[in-house]
């Protein structure tokens, strides 16, 4: 692993460490507390994770790396996500990429060969061009690293890296929640919930969530890092990721199963004191196909059996 790749892996390991949450009491609204609301959300999210395993869908992703105003690299991909036991399999259907090399954009349509066994053919103004390993491919490494770690992740059934959002029962053990009120979001009447780690020294996420008042499912979740990477770590690695945070939208499928349908993040990456990039990720889940029918989720977190298709 090259030094930059090692640094990026370390940053992601710090920011994607297992996240847990603790519920705390909050002012009641219409007889409900943040604790009660999030307990029902946790039940529904646990059930939704199981139900999402019955879906095949396409994830459309666009990832860019910029240096100031200059686009250094961008990739647009379509991947088919198929459930496989507790995880999923992602098959790349299409890739359109371009990389700035020596003041000229080079296009490519394949991922690098495994274990660095050569590079795929590329096309620059209809001419073949081999990209040398080294600084010329750094931005492509960053784009593909971020996509594979945050969205193109085989360990997730919903196309989003696990541990980014403290909503399931497992991930609510160390977080505090506060009910801010109610507000409409994306056509849903929602509870507005604020959350942050109970331990102020915890490297988790803080942010807010809009929870549908009928189904007790998240409609919108926004997060930022609860703490910055420690100064000692930034000094040692020469790495900083100011503004790291995520926004995710959820929507129900026809059978009532809620799915993440949109994921986005935009943040700056500073590595080795002299290397600075702005990273933007936008992913959309679409073209859902249900593999078989077993059950569905209804309001309040109740699970009911659905009839099998004849």
UniProtKB/TrEMBL annotation:
Keywords, ordered alphabetically: Signal
Stretch list, region Disordered: 111-139
Signal peptide location: 1-21
Compositional bias per record (Basic and acidic residues), positions renumbered to this chain: 116-129
Protein name per UniProt: Sigma E regulatory protein, MucB/RseB
Organism: Granulicella mallensis
